[in-house]
Specification:
The protein is built from no helices and 11 strands. By secondary structure, the chain is mainly beta. 28% of the residues are buried.
């Protein structure tokens, strides 16, 4: 199996930056794609960014392009999400997910972390 553990969430002010991490353990090779999703209260879960382990191909939501960077460190089996110029609307629980393909749909991802809260105050 594959386990995902997020860390690094917290409370920041608008305009500040935050980096969250996702450490994968177990059979990481079974899921070539990693994604960061977020879910705000009353809203659907949406893909923020995704990356493939091997080639480093990335995918971003239009709402975060230019402000967010996803990266991976294969030696540490860790994926990072660097978020800059944060806005109050970025407030959500951020989830790390692993799946077979780099896609926007959450049903593609079979493994999920427990989530980490990111709160951006105005």
């Amino acid at each position: 199996q594959l386990q995902l553990v997020e860390s690094g969430g917290g409370l920041v002010q608008a305009g500040e930056s935050l980096r969250i991490s996702c450490a994968a353990s177990g059979r990481t090779f079974i899921s070539p794609a990693m994604g960061w999703f977020r879910q705000a209260p009353g809203k659907e879960r949406e893909l923020v960014a995704g990356v493939t382990w091997r080639a480093g191909v990335t995918l971003y939501a239009d709402s975060v392009k230019g402000r967010v960077t996803i990266s991976r460190d294969s030696t540490k089996s860790t994926v990072y999400l660097q978020m800059n110029s944060l806005k109050p609307e970025d407030t959500a629980v951020y989830y790390c997910a692993a799946g077979p393909l780099l896609q926007r749909t959450f049903s593609n991802y079979g493994y999920w972390g427990q989530g980490t809260q990111v709160t951006v105050s105005s």
